[in-house]
Amino acid sequence: MDNAAETREFLTSRRARISPQQVGLPAHGPRRVPGLRRAEVAQLAGVSVEYYARLERGDLSGVSDQVLDALARALRLSEDDRTHLEDLARAAGPGRRRRRRAAAASVRPNLQRLLDSMACPAFVLNGRGDVLAANSLGRALYAPVIEAAGGATPNHGRFIFLDPRSRQFWGDWESAADNLVALLHAQAGRDPYDKDLTDLIGELSTRSDDFRIRWAGHDVRQYHQGAKAIHHPVVGTLHLSYESLDLPADGLILFAYGAEPGSDSEDALRILASWAADHVPEPAERSPGRTSNVRRPGVRRDAPRADDQPEP
Q1: Any idea of the CA torsion for 101, 107, 113, 118, to the nearest 10 degrees?
Q2: pLDDT of amino acid 92
Q3: How many CA atoms within 13 Å lie on the side-chain side of 35?
Q4: Rounded to a whole number, what is the largest CA-CA distance in the chain?
Q5: Positive or negative torsion for Cα 145, 147, 150, 151
Q6: Are strands 225-232 and 252-258 parallel, antiparallel or unpaired?
Q7: Residue 300 confidence (pLDDT)
Q8: Residue 2: is its pLDDT beyond 90?
Q9: Which one-letter DSSP state was computed for residue 99?
Q10: 255-276 burial, b for 16+ CB within 10 Å, e for fewer?
Q11: Burial zone of 44 (CB within 10 Å; 0-12 exposed, 13-18 middle, 19+ buried)
Q12: DSSP one-letter code for 155
């Protein structure tokens, strides 16, 4: 990723979202572009117009924390936006052309055992949205995502934007697409020299208008908890909450779903767990060239659905 271009487009997009009235400035005459002018941002941040123009051209080298704080206030950045700006500034600093330490390409055996001990659907992901490992229930839940990868490492971005089945799988496809792009933007700020990430963004931009339009918005978000609806081919619709946990030693993310106790979705997860015991193979030892411990579940078309089960 071009750090200077990302910085320029990010700051420009945030400036365009704020009107003079929102920050208590008079709006003098017509404006060729929406939002604040550079001079107005500089005034709000307490820096010279020339200095802010340099920053918006993409040159964050040597910028102080105080200036970043002032920019965050002037542009009304969210916490995630502020973190992204800090990541961009770090990447622009001296000696930052070297890549940060790469995230692990596969999970440690102890981590896989932790996944297998969990009673809920659980996964390990990297910042690019690759599903590197899962437990049995996780592989069953993400069966369509894994099947779509055709034996390669499953990737959320490729599934969401390049596979039409994703619009049926995700109950709210628009939100899933928005969230994935926002996560990739955040990852690009943390590690702009990740070639695999650059290649993924280039592939999705070339092949998907939906991705390209969203990428141009420069939204940045981190999701540590929330809720999703999933339409599963075996058990029907599940309404699940999720939690994520960073794994700093590996540069990876542990992600787990849960259902409301006593809900239909909890019952559906029990049915899915029973189905997974017969239909989802355990992961084989990772072979050379493979980066995932996720095996294809092989969803049968005649598999029973949750609404086909007798009531207790």
Answers
A1: 90
A2: 80
A3: 16
A4: 71
A5: positive
A6: unpaired
A7: 44
A8: no
A9: P
A10: bbbbbeeeebbebbbebbbebb
A11: buried
A12: B
